Each structure stands twice: as structure tokens, then as C-alpha cells.
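User: quick one, fold this
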Amino acid sequence: MWRPILDEGVVLTTQKLQLFIWTSGPPRDGLLMNFLPRHGAGLPALLLWISSTSFCQAGQAPVPPIYSPCNFPSPLHEPNLFRTVCSALPKFPFICDLHHQLAYTNTAGIEKAFLRYHSLFTDRNRSTIGVIIAKQLEAPSSATDVFKNAEYTCLFENECNQVDAEVVSGIVTNVKTFYKVYTWKVYERWFGTTESCGKTNLLALVVVDGLINDARKIPYVRIHTGSSRLRSSLSNIQSEVNNALVQGWPMAKVIEDLIDDVGYALKEFYELNGETRDHSVPIWARHVFLLCLALVVTALLVEWYIVRRKLGVQKSGSIKIASGKSKTHLMF
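Assistant:
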């Protein structure tokens, strides 16, 4: 079977590899690396025959810039670097589009969604929401890198929650744990550690192609907030945004829905004073049901009393009761 030469980024593993290079003469064996420098320019055709081979896709090539959670540009501590790296969209200073996923797209929907909940997204002229859009992220290869690499020192400097050996192991072996800790630590750098514990600030991380060493290119969305009561209402939003990425929605539409859903969740959070909305039967409906039940029971008791009294009167007066009469006839 004849197959073309493999593209870059594909790893070839084989038990038996035979190369037949055909020029103007008969086929002959040869090594590709020795052949190309001599005949590459005037080669009429090049055919590669492979027997007993298997292919595996290599990991994605990294697309810079890629930051660890501890050196991600912070609008609070490194405003100049943040504006240089993230300020591709002047209208949305709260969005950090690392790899220009929103470039040359219609962002009118994002602006409309942000203005709809502008009062909830700002506090004293300061944004309480942040959105990071990245094409790829890079996870540490081992727990030793986490403990010894200076890029991960901030993981052990948290005042609210401590990172132990179990969490470090999860960062290396579990993708969800890595994204969770990554968003959590960037959240602290974004809003400051003093604003991290118990605050309703929000940071959304949208990764389009997953990790650079994962060829599956699985998108992932993670939303972090300092308020533990608000986190319960964010899981559904994460799933909806992630499904939109999998279905191939335009990035501008994905971010628009993300901001709109988060704004609505914040609105409900403040209206209910942090309580979860009760989707069960309303109190007034329960009262109406109890009233109807009481009326039915009362009607049955009245019917029973009247019929029993009529029967008693008729028996005492020695009146013969017609066998075909019902309770209604006896009552009236």
C-alpha cells in the first residue's frame, strides 16, 4: 500500500520500514535523509511504501505566550505587562485574549451583555469579573517540578486554602484538578489575595485546545469565585459554555453567553441574599391545596351527618325507605 510522506508533528513507529524511491530509473532502496540533499530539487515523484506500521499523533506544538499560574500577568500587580499581553480589546479591559481568539470578530453581543449587568460587574470603578481566553495551557510534568520550580511557588502562599501533597499529585495526574488550581491561583493574582476569601469576584478561564501535551484538543471552561455559596450556581454555566465550544460556536458568541449567564447568576445571588432559589411548589399553591383539601373533608363530614340524621328520623317515624333512593334523595 502506498502512502504519502507524513506531515510534521506525526510520530511514526514501525516494525518494518521499507523505502522505495522512484526516479527516472528503476526503484532502488535508499535512506531518505541521504537522498533528499542530492535529489530533492529534481525529484519527479517520491513514493513511500510502509508495511506493518502504526501511527500516533504527537502532542500539540505550544503556541506562545503560555504562562504558569504564578507568572500570569496581573492587572493589579503588573498593569503594564497586562495591557501589553491582554489589551487586544480596549472596550473590554476585563478580557485577556492571549492568542487573539476574538480578533476580527463582531463583539457587539459581548458589549451588550456586559452593559446589561454593568452594575453587578463593577465595584467602585473596578471590574469584579475577569475572562481569560487561551488556546493552550501547559501542566507540570511531575510533582517535583511543582515543588522545586519557581513558577509554582505561589501555590503554597495562600491564606484561605492550603495546597498539600494530594493536591499537587492531582495537578500532575488529573486535568480537572490542574484547571481548578490554575484558575484559583490566577484569580488571586487578578484580584489580590486580600480580595480572594469570601468575595463575589469572578474569573472565567476558557481554554480552546486543552493542554499542549494532549493531542485530543479537549476544550475546558472553569469559573472561580471567592464566594462558596455562589459556586454552586456556576457549575451549570461551565457545562453550557464547554458544550458551546465543543459544538464549534464562534468565540464571540461563547463569551457573550458566558457573560450573560454569569450576570444573571449574580443578579439572583444578590436578590436572594446568597440563598439558592427554591424551584419546588410555591407556598401560596400549598395553602390553596390545603384549603381545597379542608373543603372536601368538610363536605364529606356534612354529607355523612345529614344522611345519618335523615336515616335516624325516618327509622324513628316508622317510615319505609324506598330501596331505590340515593343519599342525595335522602338529604333533600
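User: anything notable?
Assistant: Confidence is low (pLDDT under 50) at residues 1-58.
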